[in-house]
Write a structure and sequence with these properties.
This protein has 179 residues and is mainly beta. It has no helices and 16 strands.
Length: 179
């Protein structure tokens, strides 16, 4: 897994009043501070005081989980189109050897062992969707995906009891797999 500055912790996709789309990565935000409360870390960022972002990371040692939550305060008339969080990636080892796979619940589900040959190239979600985005509920049937390896793996779940719209997808970038 990548725990450096290769990819931002979060990205906001914002649509301004003039319908211009702007992507705001955490790299472009000022770090305001971090606070620890009841085992959770609250990292606060500000983008020109227009957007205040609080990323929450909780470690759960008893279940070997990390839980992620994000809150965005929008002080503008712009619309927040989507939020990418957390920024997760790892060295691309999807080489077809079947030592590593991604369990991706697109349509009926797929076990992907070769990333570079994905049927549709990755695109950020937008309108119209053309029906090829990894959107839940739609082409993606469940709110999770998993990275599987011979001796372990990683489960990425979006446990949202209201089943709100979200994108669950992955792509190859810079010799890494990005979720």
């Amino acid at each position: 897994l990548c725990a450096d500055n290769t990819y931002p912790l979060f990205v906001l996709s914002v649509i301004a009043e003039n319908y211009e789309n702007k992507k705001i990565p955490s790299f472009d935000c000022a770090f305001v501070g971090v606070e620890e409360k009841e085992g959770a870390y609250y990292l606060t960022y500000s983008y020109l005081e227009q957007f205040i972002v609080t990323a929450v990371i909780t470690a759960c040692p008893e279940t070997e989980e990390f839980r992620f939550r994000i809150c965005v305060k929008n002080n503008t008339s712009s619309l927040i189109e989507w939020v990418e969080y957390p920024g997760v990636s790892w060295q691309d080892d999807l080489d077809g050897s079947k030592k590593s796979n991604i369990l991706w619940i697109f349509n009926e589900g797929a076990l992907v062992s070769y990333n570079k040959g994905k049927m549709w190239p990755y695109e950020d979600p937008c309108y119209p969707s053309w029906g090829t985005f990894g959107i839940f509920p739609n082409m993606v049937q469940s709110q999770f995906m998993a990275y599987l390896y011979d001796d372990g793996g990683m489960y990425i779940g979006c446990h949202d009891q209201h089943k709100n719209v979200k994108q669950i997808d992955f792509y190859h970038k810079d010799e890494r797999v990005k979720l």
